[in-house]
Amino acid sequence: MENMDYVVMLRESLEKKADVLNVLLIRNKEQAAILQDPNTTPDDLERNMNMKSELIDRIIMLDEGFEQLFNRVKDIIEEDRETYADEIRLMQDLIRQISDLTADVEATEYKNKEYAKTRFANIKKDVREIKKSGDVVSSYYRNMMAHNKANDPAFLDKKK
């Protein structure tokens, strides 16, 4: 029955991947809220992205482990499909669920990309306005200092 243990491990790997994808979907929704809220900080976004990065690393690790284990037992499964029929059916359902979750994650990632573009464009616009205001103040100060020179003809006493 050792082979059945491997098949169960395959199914459990798919279940873990589905769980991680569900958490990733939650983190994507949190990221959308962060990007849409002008009061959040870059640190909030960075924390969220670090959590998502860890989840993605776990998905990659699960995929690699699944692939290695599947390559080890695929011939056994194909030879005796009836013995493993229930597990195969469960794995097929999980694969469909994972495909749906992956599509949802990709859709939220695309939306978040658009939110990020908008947020960063607004930040860039604000920076330009601040720089322009600073330039105006600096120009005004230079002009005022230039007119306050003691040898400026407007300030000389014309009656000598």
Instruction: Kindly estimate the percentage of residues that lie in beta strands according to DSSP.
Output: under 5%
- Kindly name the structural category: mainly alpha
Q: Kindly report the oligomeric state of this protein.
A: single chain
> Mind telling me the C-alpha Rg?
31 Å
Question: Topology as H/E string?
Answer: HHH
Q: Give the termini separation.
A: 118 Å
**Mean of residue pLDDT values:** 87
The count of helical stretches stands at: 3
The backbone outline, from C-alpha atoms, is rod-shaped
Number of strands: 0
Low-confidence stretches: none
| Main β sheet profile | none
Helix fraction, binned, reads over 70%
How does this model look, in words?
The protein is an all-alpha fold and 160 residues long. Helix content is 85%, strand content 0%. It is built from 3 helices and no strands. It has helices at 2-36, 42-79, 85-147. Helix 1 runs antiparallel to helix 2 (42-79). The protein is rod-shaped and about 115 Å long. The termini are far apart. The relative contact order is 0.12. The mean pLDDT is 87.
